[in-house]
């Protein structure tokens, strides 16, 4: 038996990275899946992958910035899969790495619209369905950037910091309905985005990829950039009954780069 047998999960941000890894991890644990992403072609590819693992899945093109789109995927999950037990908010928008004095507040708004308000939109849309089930789990995907502050990343860090505060607030509000709300807080994630970063640094600085990776891992006591699959397993933990008495908490998954 899988940890998520009989459960239905809505997962946002199902692209080539952590969202896909999470969908596959949930499928291996037996969950039925309603997958959300803006790119329909990529979404269909992931749906085919998880269906090949023997679970039911639907893909619904969704922009989490749009509350009606969030309501639509939740209604589809109920209609096709029978309900919603779990919500994973992993859609995100990265920063432009611009110092505050040069930043445009319109860019900050766009970052917050996805990273914070997008998560709130999907959670709010799913709430009635979670209540119908008598219990549930909401997992936010935050970021170490909200804790280990770096220059020229204020917009992204602030959006993820707001998400961590909301995690606690919603946990307090939803507890009476047995709906848990927790956050997984990754640092570096080895996957397509970091691979592109390593390639870019290597080319722009004329150094080897190994040197770029060594610079990153120098700050990570476990000596490895955490693979996206390991982050996904932490999300499974919060989604499953293994964490049934845990709510309002954040779990750092960063190889020891930051304690706190």
TrEMBL record:
Which keywords does the record carry? Oxidoreductase
The keyword Oxidoreductase is assigned to this record: yes
Q: From the Swiss-Prot or TrEMBL record, what is one GO molecular function term?
A: oxidoreductase activity
> Which SUPFAM superfamilies does the UniProt record give?
NAD(P)-binding Rossmann-fold domains
Is Transcription one of the keywords? no
NCBIfam families tied to this protein: PRK07890.1
Q: Which family does it belong to?
A: Belongs to the short-chain dehydrogenases/reductases (SDR) family.
User: Under what name is this protein listed?
Assistant: Unannotated protein
Q: What is the lineage of its organism?
A: unclassified sequences, metagenomes, ecological metagenomes
């Amino acid at each position: 038996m899988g940890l998520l047998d009989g459960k239905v999960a809505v997962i946002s941000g199902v692209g080539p990275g952590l969202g896909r890894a999470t969908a596959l991890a949930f499928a291996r644990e037996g969950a039925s899946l309603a997958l959300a992403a803006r790119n329909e072609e990529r979404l269909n590819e992931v749906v085919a992958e998880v269906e090949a693992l023997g679970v039911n899945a639907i893909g619904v093109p969704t922009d989490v910035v749009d509350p009606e789109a969030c309501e639509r995927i939740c209604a589809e999950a109920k209609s096709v899969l029978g309900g919603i037990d779990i919500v994973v908010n992993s859609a995100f928008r990265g920063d432009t790495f611009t110092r505050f004095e040069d930043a445009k507040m319109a860019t900050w708004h766009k970052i917050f619209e996805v990273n914070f308000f997008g998560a709130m939109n999907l959670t709010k849309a799913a709430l009635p369905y979670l209540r119908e089930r008598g219990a549930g789990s909401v997992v936010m995907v935050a970021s170490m950037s909200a804790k280990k502050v770096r220059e020229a990343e204020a917009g992204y860090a602030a959006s993820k910091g707001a998400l961590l505060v909301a995690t606690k607030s919603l946990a307090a509000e939803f507890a009476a309905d047995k709906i848990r709300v927790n956050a997984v807080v990754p640092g570096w994630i080895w996957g397509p985005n970091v691979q592109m970063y390593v390639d870019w640094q290597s080319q722009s600085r004329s150094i080897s990829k190994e040197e770029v990776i060594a610079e990153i891992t120098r700050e990570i006591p476990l000596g490895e950039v955490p693979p996206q699959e390991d982050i996904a397993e932490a999300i499974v933990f919060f989604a499953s009954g293994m964490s049934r008495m845990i709510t309002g908490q954040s779990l750092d998954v960063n190889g020891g780069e930051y304690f706190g």
